[in-house]
């Protein structure tokens, strides 16, 4: 029998709806309390997804009403009365992630590569099912011969449901949030 | 005349421009002198310096200046330089001061720039006079406010501000008239975005109706595919509507928008939204409330007139762009021939519902935000223009779209019969040539 060539898989269109069933479910399904060790492992997992460009999987870490915020001012009160480098409610976050998969995202042609270090993790407040985690972030972004270094403090509001950790909100305070900056495309 | 002087008018021809005007450091130096050192430059808004002592430090071209309200309440623009050894005196972006003190030897200045005190002043030679007007944080020769928008010129002579603005005063009026209480204030912070490219390409993009459908394809597609059933606190909703509107077909961009230009390099693009939520917003409860407030304060006829002004970006050459529908203002700061920083501000309309300002912030984030899904592709274009123009490819760049079909307009203007006409670029370059040659160039008008 002649060997039939398998048709090449078509490139996947950017998903219309996010995949809410998280791939990390198995890895993180545990019935432990939301302690420092688990929170830290969760943040490392998140950083790894972002460095690997697995943005759909990153989106799946957020709750259905989750938000992602990068203020434009140090000590900014809220994202509604002052501009933000990024302020995404869930709807805009889905659009942001879908755009990242577009073949016509010219600001990612060529793609950035990132390398991030998450450290100094502490739990600020919370209980077994929800807590605010503070961490330090260093991210190096390389693109088209240039390298940028971003430093900042992240605040994750983490919630636990059915043994699964999700991000209810994420805020990243960049050290140079009020500096003149070229475009920011890859999420922190 | 230097060699460059003799060449300037050969760099612009009907319907085309030589790439050198975007890449030559010597031309950039001349621009800093003859454009940013001579024309009316937007400096800031009076709401940033409400009370005596309030100051706002900024730049005119590359020169650091301070916009300040003096003890008598007058608006001043002074050079941010100590008369002693030349150090920059005011080091923070904005604040309140009773006097300005240089950190080097303590020379102290009144808010209008006059010297107040010099420590150890017995040590200077005879004739040293702290009252000499040339020894001061020198005032910029001409400062003028148009209804709160402060412009300054480093040239003692030249056309007055209103003469320079011409018909564009109506775009400044449009920013203010939308406030039910007739007053606006800068609020909600500032974006500072930067790119490695020439300052002129920024303005040349703001009225470009031919690029959104192509450049912004990734955000158009992503927004068009977005489900409206997903949670939004309102911010995402505004952003997604704006991105979808960028996806209007070419036939719409060509015929439904409108592009108008006026003497001295000014231009505005018509509003391109047919989305009843985003701009006209007639069915939106917040906008209904706003219209009611406007009618209460100004009467129905005036409210109708105000709302019927439908402009998108208004560019006042050479350094400020306004957007009245969502109360935006962008200031272009040239840093070097291949480096530009743009500051983007939002205004609050006094007497309008609070939610309207929140919509303004959401709009600012998506249109002017450093992490915007839209602006980041524009910044990529500005960077790539610089990279491309540095090559040995085509010397002459094409700006001839609409050249033969543009028509005259009232107020000495010219408009595109087709909304994607590049008439606004040619119009800016005509103004550029006039300023750069101090009116001496043979009028090789790019727009005519």
> Which CATH class of chain A?
Alpha Beta
Largest sheet entry of chain B: 9 strands, antiparallel
- Averaged pLDDT of chain A, please? 89
Order of helices and strands of chain A: HHHEEHEEEE
* CATH C-level of the largest domain in chain B: Alpha Beta
| Strand adjacency order, main sheet of chain A | 2-1-6-5-4-3
**Total beta-strand segments of chain B:** 22
Radius of gyration based on Cα positions of chain B = 23 Å
Q: Estimate what percentage of residues of chain A fall within beta strands.
A: 35-45%
- Helical amount of chain A: 10-25%
Residue windows where pLDDT falls under 50 for at least 5 positions of chain A = 17-22
Helix run count of chain A: 4
The structural domain count of chain A equals 1
Q: What class would the helix/strand composition of chain A place it in?
A: alpha+beta
Strand order of the largest sheet of chain B: 13-19-18-17-16-15-14-22-21
What is the level-2 CATH architecture name of the largest domain in chain B? Alpha-Beta Complex
Largest interface, counted by CB within 8 Å of the partner chain's CB: A-B, 44 and 54 residues
Helix content, binned percent of chain B: 25-40%
Give the overall pLDDT of chain B as a whole number.
93
């Amino acid at each position: 029998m002649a060997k039939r060539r398998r048709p090449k898989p078509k490139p996947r269109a950017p998903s219309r709806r996010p995949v809410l069933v998280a791939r990390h479910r198995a890895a993180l399904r545990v019935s432990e309390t939301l302690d420092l060790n688990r929170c830290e492992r969760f943040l490392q997992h998140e950083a790894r997804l972002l460095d690997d460009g697995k943005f759909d999987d990153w989106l799946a870490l957020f709750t259905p009403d989750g938000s992602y915020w990068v203020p434009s001012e140090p000590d900014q009160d809220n994202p509604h009365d002052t501009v933000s480098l990024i302020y995404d409610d869930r709807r805009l976050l889905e659009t942001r992630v879908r755009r990242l998969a577009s073949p016509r995202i010219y600001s990612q042609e060529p793609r950035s590569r990132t390398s991030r270090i998450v450290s100094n993790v502490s739990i600020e407040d919370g209980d077994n099912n929800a807590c605010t985690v503070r961490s330090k972030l260093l991210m190096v972004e390389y693109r088209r011969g240039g390298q940028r270094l971003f430093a900042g403090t992240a605040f994750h509001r983490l919630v636990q449901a059915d043994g699964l950790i999700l991000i209810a909100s994420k805020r990243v305070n960049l050290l140079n949030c009020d500096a003149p900056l070229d475009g920011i495309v890859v999420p922190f | 005349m230097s060699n460059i002087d003799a060449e300037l008018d050969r760099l612009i021809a009907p319907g085309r421009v030589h790439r050198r005007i975007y890449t030559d450091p010597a031309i950039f130096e001349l621009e800093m002198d003859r454009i940013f050192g001579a024309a009316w430059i937007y400096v800031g808004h009076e709401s940033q310096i409400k009370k005596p002592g309030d100051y706002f430090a900024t730049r005119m071209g590359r020169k650091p200046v301070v916009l300040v309200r003096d003890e008598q309440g007058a608006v001043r623009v002074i050079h941010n330089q100590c008369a002693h050894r030349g150090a920059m005196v005011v080091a923070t972006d904005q604040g309140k001061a009773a006097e300005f003190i240089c950190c080097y030897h303590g020379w102290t200045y009144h808010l209008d720039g006059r010297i107040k005190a010099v420590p150890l002043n017995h040590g200077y030679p005879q004739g040293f006079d702290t009252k000499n007007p040339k020894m001061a944080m020198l005032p910029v020769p001409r400062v003028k406010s148009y209804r709160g928008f402060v412009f300054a010129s480093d040239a003692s002579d030249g056309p007055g501000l209103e003469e320079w603005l011409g018909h564009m005063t109506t775009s400044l009026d449009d920013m203010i008239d939308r406030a039910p209480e007739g007053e606006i204030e800068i609020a909600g912070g500032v974006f500072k975005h930067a790119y490695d490219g020439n300052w002129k390409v920024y303005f040349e993009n703001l009225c470009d109706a031919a690029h959104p459908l192509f450049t912004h394809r990734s955000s158009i597609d992503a927004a068009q595919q977005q489900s409206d059933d997903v949670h939004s606190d309102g911010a995402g909703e505004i952003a997604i509507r704006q991105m979808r509107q960028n996806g209007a077909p070419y036939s719409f961009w060509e015929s439904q928008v409108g592009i108008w230009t006026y003497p001295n390099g000014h231009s505005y693009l018509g509003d391109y939204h047919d989305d009843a939520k985003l701009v006209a917003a007639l069915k939106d409860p917040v906008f209904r409330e706003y219209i009611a407030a406007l009618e209460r304060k100004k009467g129905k006829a005036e409210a109708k007139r105000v709302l019927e002004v439908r402009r998108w970006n208004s560019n006042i050459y050479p350094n400020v762009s306004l957007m009245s529908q969502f109360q935006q203002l962008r200031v272009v700061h040239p840093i070097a021939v291949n480096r530009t920083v743009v500051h983007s501000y939002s205004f609050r309309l006094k007497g309008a519902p609070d939610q309207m300002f929140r919509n303004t912030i959401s709009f600012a984030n998506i249109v002017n935000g450093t992490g915007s899904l839209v602006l980041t592709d524009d910044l990529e274009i500005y960077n790539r223009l610089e990279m491309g123009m540095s090559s040995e490819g085509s010397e002459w760049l094409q700006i001839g779209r609409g050249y033969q079909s543009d028509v005259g307009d009232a107020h000495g203007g010219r408009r595109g019969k087709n909304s994607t006409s590049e008439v606004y670029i040619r119009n800016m370059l005509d103004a550029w040539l006039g300023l750069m040659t101090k009116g001496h160039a043979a009028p090789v008008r790019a727009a005519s």
